[in-house]
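Recap from last week: sequence in, structure out.
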Amino acid sequence: MKHAFGLLFVGVSLALGLQARCTTLPDACGDNKTQFDVKTLKNQPAPAPPAAGKAQIVFVEEENQWVAPFTNATVRFGMDRAWVGANEGNSYFTIDVAPGTHHLCASWQGTKNLGLAPITAEPGKVYYFAARVNVESKYSVAFDFSPLNDDEGKYRVKAGKLSTSKPKPQD
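Predicted structure tokens:
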């Protein structure tokens, strides 16, 4: 009887541990409970350069098609343990950051898809990072988060919409 109870206890502990791991995001991200409402604006001027003594990060989302009928993916972007904003569809937003090492995160809101990237920011420089949502078939969607070169980043900004986002109220 003690042996069966011990096995049951170990099994429940492992299951709870796996569930906790699935809902816990890496340190670069923010709280997994945070969800965003996103609005996008077409035909916006190019982003202003970074503020004096700062670097700028441009977060871009690329989708090859809707992920569901008439629905774009919402991707949240985090830095150093906090969400800094979100995009929806082919859109972008910028943040100015202090020079130094930062840890970036992109998480497709409502899924377990995420990507991580470190950056060592230098004053006056602009860095582009893209989260790509690629619908391959009815049953397969790929997610990737990676840096873009300057030419591709500038093009994505020019071709995309400016994103504004705010966290949804939590229950």
